[in-house]
Inverse folding.
């Protein structure tokens, strides 16, 4: 429930500052959640990114403003966060389906996007298997890539495909994908693909050795073809496990661990490891 309350507090903050300039990091700081986990939780629970929510709310209110007598398109554009009338007009037409100038006419049909309220919905009694396990520190040989939170779910599978096609050149098996959080970059993280150092004789060009510290991990088994099964498990972790867990994430790393086998098989097995601390 704490996560649900935090997200509603975040939405309260967004609504109070819709006409102001602020970042995702500002909102995450307000509710004391790391920027990455805040963005991911918001999108998992609502189905849209925070940026989309803010844009939809502003354009909805801008439509109402344009129906007022004497309103000017440029004034409304500047009020709702756009630098000029041209960029505002493009965004407005994508959202409402009509140009801002047409919205000023009597009888114009506009779209309304209401304030969001997040609630915990109790559905079926689904079983989500996990285990809490302390693992010693280990070293991993990884080829790192930097991703943005908003686009990573589409881009990471593409990087994996490239990695596997080039296996004969580098010889590093794709045993794990390690997400490394950079506390300085609020909307970005490093994701490295590779394996335990003990599985590699020489570190190939483009790879680096990372030391993963000792942690207590929440480990979630996944069964099914990739990448669908592991993406669905991430969604279940954020929507089913995290809201009621007695643990909170430790924002340093998380790991997707892969076994040998046919990744397209319905029986393929993988795991998600997330470092946790008790609340």
């Amino acid at each position: 429930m704490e996560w649900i309350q935090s997200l509603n507090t975040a939405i309260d903050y967004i609504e109070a500052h819709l006409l102001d300039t602020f970042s995702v990091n500002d909102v995450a700081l307000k509710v004391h959640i790391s920027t990455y986990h805040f963005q991911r939780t918001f999108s998992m629970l609502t189905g849209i990114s925070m940026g989309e929510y803010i844009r939809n709310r502003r354009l909805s209110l801008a439509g109402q403003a344009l129906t007022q007598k004497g309103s000017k398109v440029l004034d409304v554009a500047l009020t709702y966060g756009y630098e000029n009338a041209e960029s505002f007009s493009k965004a407005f037409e994508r959202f409402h389906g009509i140009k801002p100038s047409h919205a000023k006419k009597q009888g114009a049909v506009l779209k309304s996007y209401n304030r969001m309220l997040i609630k915990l919905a109790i559905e079926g009694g689904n079983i989500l298997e996990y285990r809490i396990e302390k693992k010693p520190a280990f070293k991993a040989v990884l080829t790192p890539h930097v991703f943005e939170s908003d686009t990573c779910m589409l881009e990471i599978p593409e990087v994996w495909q490239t990695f596997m096609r080039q296996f004969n050149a580098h010889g590093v098996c794709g045993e794990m994908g390690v997400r490394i959080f950079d506390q300085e970059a609020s909307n970005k993280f490093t994701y490295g693909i590779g394996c335990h150092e003990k599985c590699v004789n020489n570190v190939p060009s483009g790879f680096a050795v990372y030391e993963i510290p000792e942690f207590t991990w929440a480990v979630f088994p996944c069964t099914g073809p990739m990448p669908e099964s592991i993406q669905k498990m991430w969604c279940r972790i954020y929507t089913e496990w995290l809201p009621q867990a007695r643990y909170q994430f430790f924002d340093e790393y998380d790991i997707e661990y892969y076994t040998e086998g046919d990744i397209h098989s319905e029986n393929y097995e993988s795991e998600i490891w997330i470092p946790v601390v008790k609340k």
